[in-house]
Amino acid sequence: MSRTVYVNGEYLPEAEAKVSIFDRGFLFADGVYEVTSVLNGKLIDFAGHAKRLERSLSELDMAAPCTMDELLDVHRELVALNQIDEGMIYLQITRGAATDRDFVFPPADTPPTIVLFTQSKPGLADNPVAKRGIKVITIEDQRWGRRDIKTVQLLYPSLGKMMAKAAGVDDAWMVEDGAITEGTSNNAYIVKGNTIITRNLGNEILHGITRAAVLRFATEAQLKVEERPFTLEEALAADEAFITSASAFVMPVVEIDGTAIGAGKPGPIATRLREIYLEESMKVAV
Ligand code: PDD
Q1: Side-chain half-sphere exposure of 85, counting CA atoms within 13 A
Q2: 208 ligand 1 Cβ < 6 A
């Protein structure tokens, strides 16, 4: 079935949606994005995604094409038009199309390009992968230095996923100066005893919206949270490991670089946090 997508103010069948070959997103990866999950036809943590989007735009001195309330309406309209029960909505805003290729930004009044589309994923919440857990390898983190901005330059994460695939595993965790930064498209955590350890916020990682919620729920559940860099050695000796993202929620990691973590199956803390996250975020979904 053809999707209805949104491009620069219009709802169109996906085959009719077009952007210019001079679009700076296409030529320079000069654009930002958000992925918001949909459960029971409702948006999970839209407010968090909207806030991070505003920050990404402002860090790049890029104009927002509309207000965040208008964006919420577009999200909801696309969910309705495409009858999405479970899945994701992808949103991308670029600096727009200049009249030619030029490294220098186009005039400030160049309209930004905005594109949104839905991805239907029945079974996203009740994902069987969460019951077996995922396996990861570690790779060198070769991304640029402003990973806190959610830009569309995803070539290295994409190469990382391919390295994982070639190694017969599910994903890769990236390592810089001896410490894990994050997964290719998710934040990374280890658990030791009653303590959850995850990289502190900074320019080195994306400030995950799921991360913020999960750390809040963890504290409420009397777990200790340490936000600091952790090494591969620590991770290999951990009791549990997991990742978080808008599309994976909380996903247990059962193997790193061929070594089983803890009992080599999803641990109780990751499993419980997944349940709490899904339950609590669905309660306040919009
Ligand atoms: N990825 N770190 C990176 C590098 C990411 O790309 C993502 C999200 C996250 C998790 O952020 P959040 O919890 O806000 O989804 C962390 C999205 C899902 C993607 O690119 O598809």
Answers
A1: 5
A2: yes
Contact (Cβ atoms closer than 8 angstroms) between residue 211 and residue 218: no
Q: What is the pLDDT of residue 208?
A: 98
In this structure, are 259 and 143 located in the same domain?
A: yes
Q: How many domains does the chain have?
A: 2
Q: Does the CB atom of residue 251 touch ligand 1 within 6 A?
A: no
Closest residue (by CA) to atom 4 of ligand 1? Answer: 185
What is the Å distance from ligand 1's center to 182 Cα?
10
The domain of 147 spans 129-283
Summarised one tens digit per residue, pLDDT across range 213-272 is 999 999 999 999 999 999 999 999 999 999 999 999 999 999 999 999 999 999 999 999
* Model confidence at 1: pLDDT above 80: no
DSSP 199: P
Percentages helix, strand, coil for the chain (3-state, rounded to 5) are: 30, 30, 40
Show Cβ contacts of residue 262 under 8 Å, excluding neighbours closer than 6 positions: 238, 239, 240, 241, 254
Is 151 a pocket residue for ligand 1 (Cβ < 6 Å)?
A: no
